[in-house]
Amino acid sequence: MSQRPNQMPEPDVVQAIPVAPDAEPAPVPGTDTITEPAKLLRIASMVRELLEETRQTSLDEPGRKRLAEIYGRSVGELAGILSEDLREELASLAPPIDDGVPTESELRVAQAQLVGWLEGLFHGIQAAMFAQQAAARAQFEELRRRGLPAQNPQGGPVPRENERTPGQYL
User: Fold this and answer.
1) Is 9 domain-assigned?
2) Beta-bridge partner residues of 114
3) Residue 61: which residues within 8 A CB-CB, separation 6 or more?
4) Inside any domain, residue 162
5) Alpha-carbon distance 96 to 47, whole Å?
6) Is residue 157 included in any domain, yes or no?
7) Number of compact structural domains in the chain
8) CA triplet 102, 103, 109: central angle to 5 degrees?
9) Residues 75 and 49 sit within 8 Å (Cβ to Cβ)
10) Which of 48, 38, 85 is nearest to 70 (CA)?
């Protein structure tokens, strides 16, 4: 910001770069992104329920085969909505189940790994949101500490209590 003597500070000029309306924002390298959070939550809930079901019942061969197919499809769907680094992590921690009929214990272990990874991902998301909220709060407190006036959405200063602004009828 540039400032002249005895005057309010003026913001420095910043040049905007035009972006096409349909262009997606480029993710910052090294950041984890999820393109469809609702789909992630649905898949995670389904996998958790399947894990609970396999713990409570014994499965016959067609049931184990079907559950292996669901597991593979779930991992594939998850991979489609994750960033490249998360996709690689998922592939290393939730490997595909080999062709053939897996045993119940193989299915339980694979599903438990997937559920554990998803829960870790959710905890990471919560931690990131908490950190963003704390940073925003700190930034707001810094502005408050400096004594900068708050702005209303129309761009002008916020009116003081019991002060009427022009154009208000009530």
Assistant:
1) no
2) none
3) 101
4) no
5) 15
6) no
7) 1
8) 90
9) no
10) 48
Question: In a 3-state reduction of DSSP, which class is residue 17?
Answer: coil
Q: Domain containing 56: what range?
A: 37-144
Residue type, 159: P
Q: Which helix (H) or strand (E) holds 102?
A: none
Q: What are the structure tokens assigned to 1, written together?
A: 């910001």
Q: What is the pLDDT of residues 51-65, one digit of tens each?
A: 888 788 888 888 888
Per-residue confidence (pLDDT) for residue 105, from 0 to 100: 86
Cα gap 61→141, rounded to integer Å: 61
Query: pLDDT tens for residues 146-164?
Result: 876 555 556 555 556 665 6
Q: What contacts 24+ positions apart, CB below 8 Å, involve 81-88? A: 81/34, 81/35, 81/36, 81/39, 81/40, 82/32, 82/33, 82/34, 82/35, 83/27, 83/31, 83/32, 83/33, 83/34, 85/30, 85/32, 86/32, 86/33, 86/34, 86/121
| Residues pairing with 151 in the sheet | 157
d(Cα 69, Cα 167) in Å, to the nearest integer?
A: 65
> Does residue 11 lie in a domain region?
no
Q: Calculate the dihedral angle through the C-alpha atoms of 115, 116, 118, 124, rounding to the nearest 10 degrees.
A: 160
Burial class (CB in 10 A: 0-12, 13-18, 19+), 64: buried
Q: Which residue has the tokens 């950041």?
A: 31
